[in-house]
Task: structure prediction
Amino acid sequence: MVLDDLGDSLKGTLRKIANAVYVDSKLIKEVVRDIQRALLQADVNVKLVLELTKKIEKRALEEKPPAGMSNREHVIHIVYEELVNILGGARELPAKKQIIMMVGLYGQGKTTTCGKLAIYFKRKGLRPALIAGDVHRPAAYEQLKQIAEQVKVPFYGDKNEKDAGKVVKEGLEKLKRANDVIIVDTSGRHKLENDLIKEMKDIFNATKPDEKLLVMDAAIGQQAGPQAKAFHETVDITGIVLTKLDGTAKGGGALSAAAEVGAPIVFIGTGEHSEDFEKFDPAGFISRLLGMGDIKSLLERAQESLKGQDAEKTAKRIMSGKFTLHDMYDQMNMLSGMGSLKKVAEMLPLGFPGKGKVKQEDMDSTENKLQKFRVIMDSMTDEEMNDPTLVRAARIKRIARGAGVENRNVKELLKYYNVTKRMMKGFSGNRKMQKNLMKQLQFGK
Ligand SMILES: Nc1nc2c(ncn2[C@@H]2O[C@H](COP(=O)(O)OP(=O)(O)OP(=O)(O)O)[C@@H](O)[C@H]2O)c(=O)[nH]1
Ligand SMILES: [Mg+2]
Result:
């Protein structure tokens, strides 16, 4: 995987979120700082980093998770979405008959990329062929010829002809009947100067390419932006290929700068071999960089172990006579599985009709109620969670707004808390009930 360092630090940050007991503004601020540091180290543009992290912070603090998503998952999802956004839109080269012209400065990886593209289209069931449009160095001709042999596709070149336009025209005549994707290699220069522009125009006129792919070495970092822009203005590039992402820790610079230009990144080169090539899809790229698959299972595991750890902790605290909203929150998390909820339903003052059998519809509405209560508590500050007596009129309003519920729902939660607390107090003096409670909480694991 490319950008290993960036990936590692971002993964560490997400792990922090996944393992956090509470997602509060302190954690979010810390996470935002971590992300800033990681992106700056990967050379992403400072302005972009600040804009991005401001957006992450605002969204993480203000947006509430959609139904069925926990706070942790939600914040992780926001980080993921915003990172995908800075990489620009996705574009896939169509798998169809076409002419592709490679452009770019000297030594960026154009010729190597010709071979990689040939394999890519071959795998799509098309018949690619290569034309040597770099007529200046005999070595360029040999290099492309060798690559063509290696990847087993037809090749056309003329070592003795110095007119690039003429060579590619002849190549096209020769290859177009039996091949459907014609890839034209061109020569590079040290900078985008007049003779390179003229040669690009000659080849352009001779081939009328469908795609003009700009090949850039990712190690140039921030310079990718201005360079891509200059080429874009000259030949109207249709896609960018960033090469050598394997060899640089600063690849974040090139990736984000290139994505800003308006021409999409279509492929990335991740090594010298013809196989080291990937279609670039921002969402897939970020999801792998962040190890989203791992994070997902991590979240599930964290939830599990939280339940385990907290069962004991909560039980102990309850028995000591202290019972805050934090404890109630933990308790609710533990009870959220139907199995255990049914078991303890009668113990809870949720307005069940008498003792005895609990009906399925009552269970459903209890789940809903618990879910609503959780969302309300997610909108409270740490201070309020520790001391719910602080929650009066103005705060109730704010919390209700934050959670997207009515004021009366917040009041309902507070009432539920008070009743539960009173009941918990009862527990602390009753050995038999304590034992029972311990058993029920263990069941919630
Ligand atoms: N590590 C790594 N090396 C690459 C990658 N792509 C190309 N290279 C290497 O970069 C060097 C230059 O690649 P070329 O394909 O010859 O570049 P070019 O743009 O055709 O160069 P000119 O034709 O001289 O302008 C070669 O040594 C390649 O093996 C890549 O994705 N990763
Ligand atoms: Mg070359």
Q: What stands out?
A: Residues 292-319 form the longest helix (28 residues). DSSP finds 19 helices and eight strands in the chain.
